[in-house]
Here is the input.
Amino acid sequence: AVMAEAMDSNAAMPQSSAVAGRALDGMAGSGGGGAPTTSAPVVRSDFSETAYFKPQLAIKKGFGRINFRMPERLTGWQVAVTALTADVKRGKASAQVQTRKDFMARLEMPRFFREGDSGVIKAVLHNETDTELKAQVTLQLEKEGRPAGGLFGVKDASLQADMKPGEVKAVEWEIAAPRGVALYNARIVARAASYSDAEERELPVLASRQRLIASQIKSLDGNSSAALSLDELKSRDDSRAIESLHLEVDPQLALSVLNSLPFLVNYPYECTEQLVNRYVPLAIVNRLYAQYPGLSEAVRKIPARNTVTPAWERDNPARMMALLETPWEELSRGQKSGLPLTDMLKPALVARERSSALEKLASYQMENGAFPWFPGGREDLYMTLYALEGFAQARGYGVPVPEDIVRKAMAYVNGELPRRLGGDEGPVSLMLYASYVMTAFPKDWEESQAGFENARQWLDYAARHIDVMTAYGKAHAALAWARLGDRKKSDDYLARALDGAKTDPISGVYWAPEKIAWLWYNDSVEKHAFLLRALVQLRPQDPKIAGMVQWLLFNRKGNEWKSTRASAGAIYSLLEVMKVRGALDKGDSYSINWGAEKIAADVGAQDWLEKPLRWSRYGADASAAYAQAKVAKNGPGLAFATLTGIYSTEQLAQDSPAGMLNVRREYFLRVKKGADYALQPLKSGDTVSVGDQVEVHLTVNCRSQFEYVQLKDPRGAGFEAETLNSGWQWDNLSRYEEPRDSLSNFFMPWLPHGEYVLNYRIRPTTPGTYRIGAAVIQSMYAPEFGAHSGGMMLNVK
Here is the structure.
């Protein structure tokens, strides 16, 4: 195998695409090391990084020969050879070679300019001869073969330079990028005596006008109204062009909630945990169909699917980046599985699968009542508790459970768990978990009587370590004490569980992630559904119930639910609350005032909406009068109303108003002070020098949880990123970073509630004044959530 690669990629210089098969005839005659001639210079434009690659080279009598043309890059190259013999011996060899000319001219300029930028185009001349040369170099700017130097304000296209032997000298032209997005060719032609050289590169001029998003969302609970206003579209801006405006109402209907349920994958070899996670959602959903016959009939309206999760709304007009440009294009069609699926939206199939899962689970139980991780394996206390918790959860939703299986497992836990008391967070959580499980079954069982007595001791023990209890653990304790008949302790623990709850007018009542949020008891959806059910059981009139329902519905709106078990519990809890409120029997009516339009819409409780109710205006019809709306709702359900605008402007943007998603961008000059570095803030209009190190901070604020979020941060012309490779970054927030010529993309599959700072470094490479557009963040799953930072201007000297 033979490979020749460029050693110096000249990162500060723009790299053009390779021109395949471009001949270099006449290179020697134009100063390539042969006798100098007066022939016209060959324009170099093939700057491939790899000169040659051949994975299989035949060897004859110990020799292998190749012929190839070098790219036109003037640089050093690394040649590497790997040999393999017939008896699998290996050898390696390498060498270095340079491509050069006696008289060379290199073109240096930014990879691009934006309209209105001022900057420099530079020619770097090399005199590798042993004589003095008087060089003349000409800058030629062309568009589609026609001269365009005047558009860039070039006054003197030809410059001269006196060069000593071995000297490198630069000449430069100050330019101003013209208006209009276009692709130009920049060429320098240099002559000195009978030597000559020329180099050509593409020069894109990108738009200074930037597409931005303005968005506002409000919740509508019961009989209520909301006023929506995009204030950033009301300020005076003669350069603003509103591309489109979208008003949507997203009713949280029973069928749309049910459709968010992931289908179960039929694994060929199931451990106890997988089997419990299969049985529980099947049991809950089967009970749900039995409890709501009308829903069992209405579910037929939902289109059939063959994926684990439903497909996204792929044609949402508010999405600013095409899904094809993100890592999630295939995922957006719904998660696929190579194994068979159980369609959770077919009531008869769910009933059959539930019975099958229960039979298999019974076969896993050992003689002493314990459950192993895998059938035939050793007994496991945690897995036994996990199976019991699954039966307790199903029973909590009204599902009859197999008494013989449950009682044998309870007897095993009563004998085994008392030996496991400890003093750290893990055992305390286990005690609370066990107390909840062992008090979830009928009191008249012999095993329950022992379980109740053990639970009282475990709860007393856990109370001495209340500082390590999670909200989930406190809810376990509240339910267990209620079953033990101590209402005062139950209320106290429930109050403690609710103490950490926070309220947001849009996302509802939520709990911030805890310090080890990856543990099973911190699953956001399952945790909220469990706390909701605990509150409904213990305090059915508590005003927080509505906010917790709102959080679950908002979470479903901005996230793809993946756990069938957690989703089943959440959906059951939601439908139970909807039933109490009458939202399963009575629909909602909407009255909307939007600009000059008055819109009325009715949605039935059992209607199926594949997409939200949406009204759009484009182009001239999208006037600023439609940047506000009023939506009134009559009915028991909950809905979200969103107004979104896509617009462009020539002015530097200001930070978006506070919303569910926000991004703030800051620039800092990295200055060495003694042995350390300090960050000196930069504001728009400040000046930095070529070679300085500039650090960019992107502060992302998220008032809820979102999946599949994209952040696009434009980079100024004349700046280069220090990191040029795409890849995953795990600090602070997991994301895939993709540096491009004119911007950096950050793809975040999971954006938890909170504030996160992402940073990267750039260096100024070319003098000039450069415009830097706003950073834009948007949810790809729910595009109505988006925001942008302010714009920036930086001078480079």
The CA atoms of residues 128 and 484 lie 93 Å apart.
